[in-house]
Amino acid sequence: MLLSINGRPPADQSARVIKMAVDSGMTLFDTADSYCLDENEMGHNERLLSLGLEGRRDSVVVTTTLGIRRPGGAWTVDSDPDYLIESVERSLKNQRVEALDLVFLYASDMRVPYEESVGALARLREIGKIKQVGLCNVDLVLLKKAEAVTRIDAVQNRWNPQSREPEKEGIIEYCAAKGTAFIGYAPFGGTLGAPTLTTLGKLSDQARRRRLSPYQLVLAWMINKSPNVFVVPGARRAESVEDSAGAGSVEFDADAVRAVENTLPQP
Fold first, then answer.
1. Which of 5, 9, 85, 222 could cross-link to 13 by cystine, CB 3.0-4.6 Å?
2. Phi, psi at residue 102, to the nearest 5°?
């Protein structure tokens, strides 16, 4: 997202970020047609990512979040089934693929029954336009409502050291029991939270003892907490991607996970 919204880097820098991610072993990429400045350039991030992954698309998984409009640069929810179907067709063209790997429904739309929105994605999976169906920003009530309609392959919720609702509400544990992937977005707290991460509790002390950056420590804690967990750290610089990728080789046992959690605010 950071490569396509306000404050985005030049195109050549964005290309280096994507290349560094692939070269560093990252295999999960998150995009959306709404990652752009406004409605006039919908699909900007999809086209950028498609270009950056050219020749290597088969070695990665790309998740696509749908159900958002960008009127005048605002962010609004639109989960109307017809709009979701139109969006999938546009995303197929933007990403230059025959089927989208994993599509997330961004949020519940008060104007449309949730089951109808989920059902539209289920039908698109049945006809081969998308491979997997996921949900964003859901609690257990919404997740179970969707599961009554179709198989849900993944859940993506905000999760970081200062936003630990997925732990408190039990959704990570529930997904693990069901064999459903859980993807934590904004693992550093977003653009506002990331600069304050190093001052959070004794996190920096733990990182120094383990010879990790605070950001690597956070990512390692998250991906080692449960085998069904994945994370999507954002970046505008290749150096940030390289640092984040280092967390992929860190193995924490249950004691190490608890040690990190003891330095964090309680969920």
1. 9
2. -150, 120
- Which residues does 91 contact at the CB level (< 8 Å), separation at least 6? 33, 43, 46, 64, 66, 100, 103
Per-residue pLDDT tens listing for the chain (267 residues) = 999 999 999 999 999 999 999 999 999 999 999 999 999 999 999 999 999 999 999 999 999 999 999 999 999 999 999 999 999 999 999 999 999 999 999 999 999 999 999 999 999 999 999 999 999 999 999 999 999 999 999 999 999 998 999 999 999 999 999 999 999 999 998 877 777 777 776 888 889 999 999 999 999 999 999 999 999 999 999 999 999 999 999 999 999 999 999 888 776
**Global pTM exceeds 0.85:** yes
What the block records as the tokens of 2 is: 């950071």
If residue 94 lies in a helix (H) or strand (E), which one and from where to where? helix 81-95
Q: Is 73 helix (H, G, I), strand (E, B) or coil?
A: helix
Alpha-carbon dihedral sign for residues 261, 162, 167, 231: negative
Question: What span, in angstroms and rounded, lies between the C-alpha atoms of 98 and 61?
Answer: 14
- Give how far Cα 72 sits from Cα of 32, 36, 43, 180, Å: 17, 11, 15, 36
Going along 59-151, which residue ranges are E strands? 61-66, 68-69, 76-77, 100-105, 130-136
Domains of the chain, first to last = 11-152 (3.20.20.100)
Round to whole Å and give the CA distance between 247 and 219: 6
164, burial (CB in 10 Å: exposed 0-12, middle 13-18, buried 19+): middle
